[in-house]
């Protein structure tokens, strides 16, 4: 099946730090990538949708200046959490889809802000 | 407001039994439907997708779709303890591509006991 790689798998850092998460589609061209956040025992919450070469579309209530998304190529999207605070601690998961591929998820990044 | 409804469970079945997971959706124009499995602390994994009315079988899994009733289900035959997970039903936005934005249900927790 399709493989989506997400890195890093876990980040622990101090409040005020910016954190970059990478999402790569390894064996297909991802025309669209999605970024989700999931709190414990809750369902996935879509944060934003990005299409290669275009600006990301953010869901209501998600601060675009805080969660910077770049999708510069058909295989790579990045999410940068700027000036992270403890309330940003969560499980961040990317997914990728292509012209012949439904959404496949990366392994997720567990972010802990101290 | 698009809605995807699942019984949160937990659904408990004995090993070897058939587990039946159900999902209803509100947008009558939806065309593409997906089932993901999510183990605790992990990201979702795509296990089935279905676009046409009727049944689609893949190994021990059968997806069933009834667009007239706006109902999609997942049957797991010969359930194993390793099938214990949260099962997420997802529906692609009507008018979008099969590989675009998904609306997820809250998930059904399945427990298979020996």
Description:
The complex is a heterodimer of chains A (114) and B (114). By secondary structure, chain A is mainly β. Helix content of chain A is 0%, strand content 55%. Chain A is built from no helices and eleven strands. In chain A, strands 2, 4, 5, 6, 9, 10 and 11 form a seven-stranded mixed β-sheet that branches. In chain A, strands 1-3-8-7 form a four-stranded antiparallel β-sheet, with no helix packed on it. Chain A is globular and about 40 Å long. The model of chain A has no long low-confidence stretch (mean pLDDT 93). In chain B, 0% of the residues lie in helices and 53% in strands. In chain B, strands 2, 4, 5, 9, 10 and 11 form a six-stranded mixed β-sheet that branches. A five-stranded antiparallel β-sheet of chain B has the order 1-3-8-7-6, with no helix packed on it. The radius of gyration of chain B is 13 Å and the shape is globular. The model of chain B has no long low-confidence stretch (mean pLDDT 93).
Uncertain regions spanning at least 5 consecutive residues of chain B: none
What string, H for helix and E for strand, traces the elements of chain B in order? EEEEEEEEEEE
- Binned, the helix content of chain B reads under 10%
Q: Approximately what portion of the residues of chain A adopt beta-strand conformation?
A: over 45%
Helix amount of chain A, in percent?
under 10%
Kindly report the greatest chain-chain contact and the residue count on each side. Answer: A-B, 22 and 20 residues
Average predicted local confidence, pLDDT of chain B: 93
State the end-to-end CA separation of chain B.
40 Å
Strand content of chain B: over 45%
By oligomeric state, this entry counts as: heterodimer
Categorize the overall geometry of chain B.
globular
Question: Rg of chain A to the nearest angstrom?
Answer: 13 Å
Biggest beta-sheet profile of chain A: 7 strands, mixed
Radius of gyration of chain B: 13 Å
The number of distinct β-strands of chain A equals 11
